[in-house]
Write a structure and sequence with these properties.
Elements: H1 2-13, E1 19-22, E2 25-28, H2 29-44, H3 50-57, H4 74-100, H5 104-114, H6 123-146, H7 153-166, H8 169-176, H9 187-195
Antiparallel strand pairs: 1-2
Length: about 200
Amino acid sequence: MFEQVITLIDQANSQDPNSEQLDNTNCPKEHLYALRMTEMLNRFSPQADKLMHIAVRGQHIERWKSPRSDFPMGKQGYHQWRSALYEFHAGRVIELMQQVGYEEQACERVYNAVAKKQIKRNPDSQLVEDIASLVFIEHYMLGFAQSKPDYDEQKWIGIIQRTWKKMSPQAHEFVLAGNITLPSPLVPLIEKALSGE
Protein backbone atom coordinates (compact mmCIF):
# COMPACT_ATOMS: atom_id res chain seq x y z
CA MET A 1 0.00 0.00 0.00
CA PHE A 2 2.85 2.38 0.83
CA GLU A 3 4.46 2.10 -2.61
CA GLN A 4 1.03 2.44 -4.25
CA VAL A 5 0.15 5.68 -2.47
CA ILE A 6 3.59 7.20 -3.09
CA THR A 7 3.17 6.37 -6.80
CA LEU A 8 -0.28 8.02 -6.84
CA ILE A 9 1.07 11.17 -5.16
CA ASP A 10 3.93 11.31 -7.68
CA GLN A 11 1.55 10.80 -10.59
CA ALA A 12 -0.70 13.62 -9.33
CA ASN A 13 2.24 16.01 -8.84
CA SER A 14 3.68 15.11 -12.24
CA GLN A 15 0.62 16.81 -13.79
CA ASP A 16 1.82 20.22 -12.54
CA PRO A 17 1.75 22.62 -15.51
CA ASN A 18 4.52 24.66 -13.82
CA SER A 19 8.08 23.43 -14.21
CA GLU A 20 11.47 24.01 -12.64
CA GLN A 21 14.92 23.43 -14.09
CA LEU A 22 17.06 20.74 -12.52
CA ASP A 23 20.32 19.71 -14.22
CA ASN A 24 19.11 21.26 -17.51
CA THR A 25 15.90 19.21 -17.36
CA ASN A 26 12.39 20.61 -16.92
CA CYS A 27 10.68 18.93 -13.95
CA PRO A 28 7.07 19.42 -12.82
CA LYS A 29 7.47 21.89 -9.96
CA GLU A 30 5.47 20.10 -7.25
CA HIS A 31 6.90 16.69 -8.14
CA LEU A 32 10.41 18.05 -7.67
CA TYR A 33 9.34 19.68 -4.39
CA ALA A 34 7.92 16.36 -3.13
CA LEU A 35 11.16 14.52 -3.99
CA ARG A 36 13.15 17.19 -2.14
CA MET A 37 10.86 16.80 0.89
CA THR A 38 11.49 13.03 0.97
CA GLU A 39 15.23 13.52 0.52
CA MET A 40 15.29 15.98 3.46
CA LEU A 41 13.20 13.64 5.62
CA ASN A 42 15.73 10.86 5.00
CA ARG A 43 18.52 13.19 6.14
CA PHE A 44 16.77 14.80 9.10
CA SER A 45 14.73 11.89 10.47
CA PRO A 46 15.92 8.60 8.90
CA GLN A 47 13.86 6.66 11.47
CA ALA A 48 10.55 8.27 10.36
CA ASP A 49 7.81 5.72 9.71
CA LYS A 50 5.96 5.16 6.44
CA LEU A 51 2.98 7.31 7.39
CA MET A 52 5.29 10.29 7.88
CA HIS A 53 6.88 9.54 4.51
CA ILE A 54 3.39 9.75 2.97
CA ALA A 55 2.63 13.02 4.80
CA VAL A 56 5.90 14.62 3.72
CA ARG A 57 5.62 13.42 0.10
CA GLY A 58 2.04 14.69 -0.21
CA GLN A 59 2.47 17.96 1.68
CA HIS A 60 2.13 20.10 -1.48
CA ILE A 61 0.03 17.73 -3.59
CA GLU A 62 -1.57 19.55 -6.57
CA ARG A 63 -0.80 22.97 -5.08
CA TRP A 64 -1.35 24.64 -8.46
CA LYS A 65 -5.06 23.83 -8.19
CA SER A 66 -5.47 26.34 -5.35
CA PRO A 67 -3.62 29.49 -6.45
CA ARG A 68 -2.99 32.47 -4.19
CA SER A 69 -4.91 34.64 -6.69
CA ASP A 70 -8.16 32.87 -5.70
CA PHE A 71 -8.06 34.68 -2.34
CA PRO A 72 -8.12 38.38 -1.39
CA MET A 73 -4.85 40.30 -1.30
CA GLY A 74 -3.35 41.31 2.04
CA LYS A 75 -2.41 39.43 5.18
CA GLN A 76 -5.92 38.15 5.96
CA GLY A 77 -6.34 36.76 2.43
CA TYR A 78 -2.91 35.13 2.66
CA HIS A 79 -3.86 33.36 5.90
CA GLN A 80 -7.19 32.23 4.40
CA TRP A 81 -5.28 30.78 1.44
CA ARG A 82 -2.76 28.96 3.68
CA SER A 83 -5.52 27.46 5.84
CA ALA A 84 -7.46 26.33 2.76
CA LEU A 85 -4.29 24.80 1.30
CA TYR A 86 -3.60 22.72 4.42
CA GLU A 87 -7.11 21.23 4.26
CA PHE A 88 -6.92 20.73 0.47
CA HIS A 89 -3.57 18.91 0.56
CA ALA A 90 -4.54 16.79 3.55
CA GLY A 91 -7.86 15.82 1.95
CA ARG A 92 -6.21 14.82 -1.34
CA VAL A 93 -3.59 12.64 0.37
CA ILE A 94 -6.31 10.90 2.41
CA GLU A 95 -8.35 10.21 -0.75
CA LEU A 96 -5.35 8.41 -2.24
CA MET A 97 -4.65 6.50 0.99
CA GLN A 98 -8.27 5.33 1.15
CA GLN A 99 -8.12 4.35 -2.51
CA VAL A 100 -5.33 1.84 -1.79
CA GLY A 101 -6.88 0.53 1.42
CA TYR A 102 -5.43 2.42 4.38
CA GLU A 103 -7.56 2.29 7.53
CA GLU A 104 -9.15 5.29 9.22
CA GLN A 105 -6.59 5.60 12.04
CA ALA A 106 -3.65 5.81 9.63
CA CYS A 107 -5.52 8.30 7.43
CA GLU A 108 -6.37 10.49 10.42
CA ARG A 109 -2.74 10.61 11.53
CA VAL A 110 -1.55 11.68 8.08
CA TYR A 111 -4.42 14.17 7.71
CA ASN A 112 -3.48 15.90 10.97
CA ALA A 113 0.19 16.06 9.97
CA VAL A 114 -0.42 17.47 6.47
CA ALA A 115 -3.09 19.89 7.75
CA LYS A 116 -0.53 21.06 10.38
CA LYS A 117 -2.94 20.41 13.24
CA GLN A 118 -1.59 21.42 16.67
CA ILE A 119 1.94 22.29 15.59
CA LYS A 120 4.30 22.31 18.59
CA ARG A 121 2.05 19.75 20.31
CA ASN A 122 1.68 17.12 17.59
CA PRO A 123 5.14 15.70 16.76
CA ASP A 124 3.89 14.59 13.29
CA SER A 125 2.75 18.12 12.37
CA GLN A 126 5.99 19.55 13.70
CA LEU A 127 8.01 17.08 11.66
CA VAL A 128 6.22 18.09 8.43
CA GLU A 129 6.77 21.77 9.35
CA ASP A 130 10.46 21.14 10.05
CA ILE A 131 11.01 19.38 6.72
CA ALA A 132 9.14 22.10 4.81
CA SER A 133 11.22 24.81 6.52
CA LEU A 134 14.51 23.01 5.85
CA VAL A 135 13.59 22.46 2.18
CA PHE A 136 12.60 26.14 1.88
CA ILE A 137 15.94 27.30 3.30
CA GLU A 138 18.05 24.95 1.19
CA HIS A 139 16.20 25.06 -2.13
CA TYR A 140 13.79 27.99 -2.30
CA MET A 141 14.82 30.87 -0.04
CA LEU A 142 17.27 32.35 -2.55
CA GLY A 143 14.76 32.22 -5.43
CA PHE A 144 12.13 33.78 -3.18
CA ALA A 145 14.58 36.57 -2.28
CA GLN A 146 15.34 37.20 -5.95
CA SER A 147 11.60 37.43 -6.71
CA LYS A 148 11.14 40.14 -4.04
CA PRO A 149 13.69 42.85 -4.90
CA ASP A 150 11.53 45.44 -3.10
CA TYR A 151 11.95 43.73 0.31
CA ASP A 152 14.42 45.56 2.53
CA GLU A 153 16.82 43.98 5.03
CA GLN A 154 14.41 44.31 7.97
CA LYS A 155 11.64 42.56 6.06
CA TRP A 156 14.03 39.70 5.26
CA ILE A 157 15.22 39.42 8.84
CA GLY A 158 11.56 39.11 9.87
CA ILE A 159 10.92 36.34 7.30
CA ILE A 160 14.00 34.38 8.41
CA GLN A 161 13.09 34.76 12.09
CA ARG A 162 9.50 33.62 11.48
CA THR A 163 10.75 30.55 9.57
CA TRP A 164 13.14 29.80 12.44
CA LYS A 165 10.36 30.09 15.05
CA LYS A 166 8.27 27.50 13.19
CA MET A 167 11.07 24.94 13.54
CA SER A 168 11.78 22.58 16.44
CA PRO A 169 14.98 22.71 18.53
CA GLN A 170 16.08 19.55 16.68
CA ALA A 171 15.71 21.32 13.32
CA HIS A 172 17.66 24.31 14.68
CA GLU A 173 20.49 21.98 15.70
CA PHE A 174 20.38 20.32 12.29
CA VAL A 175 20.89 23.67 10.55
CA LEU A 176 23.52 24.96 12.97
CA ALA A 177 25.49 21.70 12.65
CA GLY A 178 25.90 22.41 8.92
CA ASN A 179 23.60 19.63 7.72
CA ILE A 180 21.91 21.74 5.06
CA THR A 181 23.32 23.93 2.31
CA LEU A 182 22.55 27.56 3.08
CA PRO A 183 22.09 29.93 0.10
CA SER A 184 25.52 31.66 0.04
CA PRO A 185 24.33 35.20 -0.81
CA LEU A 186 21.91 35.10 2.14
CA VAL A 187 24.28 33.69 4.80
CA PRO A 188 25.21 37.12 6.27
CA LEU A 189 21.49 38.01 6.49
CA ILE A 190 20.63 34.63 8.06
CA GLU A 191 23.40 35.06 10.64
CA LYS A 192 22.19 38.58 11.43
CA ALA A 193 18.57 37.41 11.78
CA LEU A 194 19.48 34.53 14.11
CA SER A 195 21.83 36.61 16.25
CA GLY A 196 18.91 38.93 17.01
CA GLU A 197 16.48 36.16 17.98
